[in-house]
Amino acid sequence: MTTKIPIADIAAQYLSLQADIDAAVRRVLASGHFIGGPEVEAFEQEFAAQCGAGEAVSVASGTDALRFSLLATGDGGARARARDGIDEVVTSPLSFIATTEAISQAGARPVFADIDSETFTLDPTALEAAVTPRTRAIVPVHLYGQAADMPPILERARRAGAVVVEDACQAHGSLDRGRAAGTLGDAGCFSFYPTKNLGGCGEGGMVTTSRREVAQRIRRLRDHGQVEKYRHLEEGYNGRLDALQAAILRVKLRHLPAWNERRRALALRYRAGLSDLAAPHGDGPGRGDLVLPVERAGARHVYHLFCVRVKDRERVRAALLEKGVETGVHYPIPLHLQPAYAWMGLSEGSFPVAERAAREVLSLPLYPEMTEDQVDRVCEALRDVLGRG
Ligand SMILES: Cc1ncc(COP(=O)(O)O)c(C=O)c1O
Asked: CA-CA distance, 374 to 376, in Å (whole number)?
């Protein structure tokens, strides 16, 4: 193997847009408008238009987007339940910890429902059982770039009088039944962490919503609860997106549809290149084969990650690295087994589908600037490592 194949290559993305990004940065530097201002407002409008959202409110990170959305939708119906104790928010045990951090930091208790074994998103049947009279919100996580199966989730929330806050941090441009992830619930939360499908050159996030009052409250929360200069209606946060990120993200937003198409094309090439290694449908991976990601009928996957399942993952990872192929694991420990949540008293076996996924998932390199030849080299390396060369 010659050069190493990274799991993502954000420097390559910058180089492909260098002139436009440099011009945007110079424009902001010369303007003296570093926090808020026209770049931030323009980015919000362009982002809302591109995903068909009523409004978009920029914030400092995906974590802020989740925290502020839960705070802004947490009043109303929750008040009656608060009498009986703490509110609950149901989410997936296979996610980044930001999802549950935001729930706790918004004053609720995270409750888990297991995931679907093929799509890694909330299993509607498990969700049915996890919702209680205390459920204030449901947070589906559109994991790896694929939207959760939203109609049954929205229906369950409606019956419970709960809101739906979508964690779309990995799903910019993903669709469920033709509608954009992040526009299906009460609020949609995006991250612009550099490696995301739409990533900045630093931290950033966005909330999309068609609920005016939710957008308004988040605009206040991100700016210390301020309603006019130095008049604070409530305590808030320092959670604003800066103008440099907004200007850079405006340049990149124009390329997001093409980048997502490219990710899908590369995913298709992986599928073709790995089809002979695919485990029989329905079974988990056996020795010498793997399970390919499933694109749910009605969903448009944007492959933030191309995540396969293998047995003996750590050996496979190490052997791939030796052949110059970098991989990732998203995520090795399900949230309910994290030391941070030991207080929940949930042991191994609580959410078996998520636990098995955490043992088997392996993210292969995938980014828009990746070449077909690189995909072929990863397939070849995997074939060798699985003893099928
Ligand atoms: C599923 C998920 N939720 C939330 C976040 C938090 O986003 P951020 O890192 O921008 O705070 C991320 C990304 O890091 C994520 O992947």
From this structure: 5
Whether 22 and 61 share a structural domain = yes
For residue 7, tell me if it sits in a domain.
Answer: no
How many Å lie between the centroid of ligand 1 and the Cα of residue 40?
A: 20
Domain of residue 88 covers: 12-253
236 and 261 in a single domain? The answer is: no
Distance 361 CA to ligand 1 centre (A): 18
- Of 181, 189, 309, 203, nearest to 248 (Cα)? 203
The pTM (predicted TM-score) of the whole model is 0.97
Quote the ligand 1 centre to 172 CA distance (angstroms): 12
Query: Which of ligand 1's atoms lies nearest the C-alpha of 141?
Result: 1
Q: Rounded to whole angstroms, how far apart are CA atoms 304 and 288?
A: 26
Nearest partner of 290 among 268, 306, 269, judged by Cα? 306
Ligand 1 atom showing the smallest separation from residue 193 Cα? 10
pLDDT tens for 58-100 read 999 999 999 999 999 986 444 444 444 589 999 999 999 999 9
Cβ of 354 closer than 6 Å to ligand 1, yes or no, is no
- Is residue 247 within 8 Å of residue 42, measured between CB atoms? no
| Same domain assignment for residues 83 and 180 | yes
In terms of domains, do 196 and 81 share one? yes
**What residues of the chain score a pLDDT lower than 70?**
1-2, 75-85, 281-282
